[in-house]
Amino acid sequence: MKIDLAPSSTGASFRAASFNEKDHTIELTWSTGAPVRRRGPNGIYVELLVMSAEACDLSRLNSGAPFLDSHRDGDLSHVLGSIVPNSAKIIGGRGVAKVLLSRAAGDADTIQKIKDGIIRGVSVGYSIDAVEIVPQDDGPPIYRVTKWTPFEISGVAIGADAGAQVAQNGKRGATVTTSPATARALPADCVDAARARMTIKHLSRNIPFYSGTTH
Question: Which of 99, 131, 160, 161 measures 20 to 30 Å from 122, CA to CA?
């Protein structure tokens, strides 16, 4: 069965202490895979990204994907840097990467806040390719995203804890499977769902979601 899902976004945080002055780079965690409560055409559900090399296609990040200001991709002035090629990895269930930051004068104030640890929120933009729906007897269904592709990372002002996702204008088809209604438990590697918060932003006719974490 096919279902249309808008691309999503999820987040994590910078590590200000990792800033390399010589290379003008900084390391970050762009997803922890934590569950995020969302609202879709069929009501509320909990989205859970599967954080593994098999589930997550890192090719676009590792080809030098953009590092944006708050997922704004309308013009080049919002590009604050780029992902260092081949630096995006999934380690211990967390997505990590290194970002080459802009040296342009017009970006200096924002970059300085990142370097100083004032801006710490990060959100990753991704498209969804396959979802497993796990019905719950005592709550909203869990949408386990079993195939997904990150395509940008953003610095954000406000981020939810733990989970991760960014949407772009447009939808794509995703393969969906439904597990038996008796399945109730979240996967064992799931962090506390109560930590996740949701921020909704409307884009055109779609409703993408933006969330990030700070530590």
Answer: 131
Cα distances (Å, whole numbers) of residue 104 to 19, 85, 136, 176: 17, 20, 50, 44
Domain count across the chain: 1
Query: Could you report the per-residue pLDDT of 62-121, keeping only the tens digit for each?
Result: 999 999 999 998 899 999 999 999 999 999 999 999 999 999 999 999 999 998 888 888
pLDDT tens for 13-28 read: 556 678 888 999 999 9
Q: Which residue range is the domain that position 115 belongs to?
A: 2-210
Structure tokens at 16: 């200000």
Domain contains 215: no
**Better-predicted residue by pLDDT, 110 or 193:** 110
> In the block, which residue shows the tokens 């997550």?
56
* Helix intervals (H) in the chain: 59-62, 108-115
